[in-house]
Design brief:
190 residues, Rossmann fold, five-stranded parallel sheet, four-stranded mixed sheet, binds guanosine-5'-monophosphate
Length: 190
């Protein structure tokens, strides 16, 4: 299948990437959320095939072996996440552009593999302190997990220049408008 366009939204955990992703999908019917495969536990309210394709580590490894992933990462200890080629092809076949909400390393892989077809947007939290407050206020993570995510976030922020566009999320409305402008320009390009 011919390679179409890919839009990636990436960020450290807690930077507000999901809110921006939600806004973009609500307002642009030509965009479609790329549902990733994941081996982590399903959280309350999550639906298989909507939020993720939940699968066992064995099933995931089998797909890695069969080269079914465009990229995959062990994002958190013992939890694998990956973008299935079949998912991207399904979205292209519908005449839409996939929106990938993936971690920084996975985003760099796709950007390197398809530099001309990819728009990668890095969502930066206003500060490390704000990021920590957001992670705590979610109330879903243990202290240990918060500390792991914080050290990972500092590393990820150091990689921000690898991406096409950096959007600082100090004001959600402004960040959404900036992201919308960037994706609209990108799809209009031949
Ligand atoms: P969560 O477990 O909170 O849903 O997601 C954890 C992290 O995994 C998020 O930063 C999310 O963007 C990332 N992620 C989700 N799907 C993929 C994927 O297919 N590939 C990669 N590399 N990261 C992913």
């Amino acid at each position: 299948m011919a390679i179409g366009k890919i839009i990636i939204l990436t960020a450290p955990s807690g930077a507000g990437k999901s809110s921006i992703s939600y806004h973009l999908l609500e307002n642009n019917e030509w965009l479609a959320f790329s549902v990733s495969a994941a081996t982590r536990e399903k959280r309350k309210g999550e639906i298989d095939g909507v939020h993720y394709y939940f699968m066992s580590p064995e099933e995931f490894r089998e797909k890695v072996k069969n080269n079914e992933f465009l990229e995959w990462e062990m994002v958190y200890k013992d939890n694998y996440y990956g973008t299935l080629r079949s998912e991207i092809e399904r979205i292209w076949a519908e005449g839409k552009t996939p929106l990938l909400d993936i971690d920084v390393k996975g985003a760099i892989h796709i950007e390197q593999e398809y530099p001309n077809n990819t728009l990668s947007i890095f969502v930066q939290p206003p500060s490390i302190e704000v990021l920590e407050d957001r992670l705590r206020s979610r109330g879903t993570e243990s202290e240990e997990k918060i500390q792991t995510r914080m050290s990972k976030a500092a590393y990820e922020i150091s990689l921000r220049d690898s991406f096409d566009k950096i959007i600082v999320n100090d004001d959600l409305d402004r960040a959404c408008a900036e992201a919308e402008k960037a994706i609209t320009q990108f799809v209009k390009q031949p």
